[in-house]
Write a structure and sequence with these properties.
436 residues, Rossmann fold, nine-stranded mixed beta sheet, four-stranded antiparallel beta sheet, binds adenosine-5'-diphosphate, binds potassium ion, binds zinc ion
Amino acid sequence: MTLEFWQEEFETLEKKDLQQLQLERLNKTIESACRSLFYGELYSKKKIKPGVIKDISQITELPFTTKQDLRDNFPYGFLSLPKKDIIRLHSSSGTTGNPTVIFHNRHDLDSWANLMARSLFCAGVRDTDVFQNICGYGLFTGGLGFQYGIETLGALSIPAGAGNSLRQIKLMRDYGTTAAHAIPSYLGRLYEVFEAEGLDPKKDTQLKTLVIGAEPHTDAQRKRIEEMYGVRAFNSFGLSEMNGPGVAFECTHQNGLHIWEDSYLVEIIDPETLQPVPDGEYGELVMTTLDREAMPLIRYRTRDITRIIPGECECGRTHRRIDRITGRSDDMFIIKGCNVFPMQIEGVLMKIPEVGSDYMINLETMNGADEMVVEVEVKSDWFRGDIKRLDSLSKTITRQIRDEVLAKPIVKLVEAGSIPKSEGKAIRVTDNRKNG
Ligand code: ADP
Ligand code: K
Ligand code: ZN
């Protein structure tokens, strides 16, 4: 197999050259960050001056930046350039308190589009593809982030937007879509619409590549998507604080996500002690932008839990790989004394063939005790089955979840399509417990 890259000179940098580049870019980043109100004040208090970093390992001497800092300094406290140089903002919805906002100048947008093109290329997308971006445009970074990446790569883009499944299917069939991007929870629903229309995406579309991301999902979920659509599905990771998509991406080897280390400095820390953890161990991802001018962020705590996968990838890219995100540190909940991540439950469910595409975890107080009620959609042909089969399915799910998370759930089987869907990312947990 021949090795192919979007930017070979960056993607295959030897470790020492990569670190040299990071060092130069980090010092430049500190210098520009100091022009913002937030870092200007913080760094002068802590006597941190541009040029202080002589070795990349000294990053640990700098203070962390948190989402709360972004909120407290909303909207312009992190801006390193005058407003006349800023040409776009992206903002998270933020239903409570201040939203967070990220600003970009032209350099930042070009750099992001390039990283997105590099990411898509790395997952095997080419300029010969017809790429349908099934995702909300606007303030959400998945829309414009992918759009400019697809265009930079040179594939034919279809800016389809989110929702309206019948129209999505029509677009796919009219234009012969070969590649698409969507959030994984939506693809299950879209498949149900294909089925209802008497269509089979394997035969009735030309799809061969799906890019899935923006929300946590398990490998079992990915395999389901690959089977449903007859495609290969690649994991795409990003967060608006780090631009959005295009931060880390799976290559065609599908064994972890290359995180673009020429543009981001990556650390994994223990979220309790805040100390770095060795490669291979799980912890919180902390990131520093290395190529952003309008709004650099230094040691940003993402709250996402992952690990560095030790060793090299066969694809020849030297940028290290992170493992799929197991969840956010704030996703974890405690039930009956057990620490549970929603993805553990998804991992169990998606391996059970009778289970449909959606589920919901409701934490409730019942008769004074806290219970985890797991609502599980069952595939339609199964749901119409007899009570005995449903009962035994429910027991199987209960047992397997208990074995995985150690707490026994109450499993409720429901009809496919009956769990309420959110517009964007899936909501997996509701907590209705009466505290105390
Ligand atoms: P928006 O979706 O509005 O851009 P965010 O930037 O807050 O909102 O979303 C970023 C978050 O989404 C990440 O911090 C992470 O928790 C989650 N996320 C994004 N991509 C993935 C992925 N591939 N796997 C798991 N979680 C992901
Ligand atoms: K093209
Ligand atoms: Zn690779």
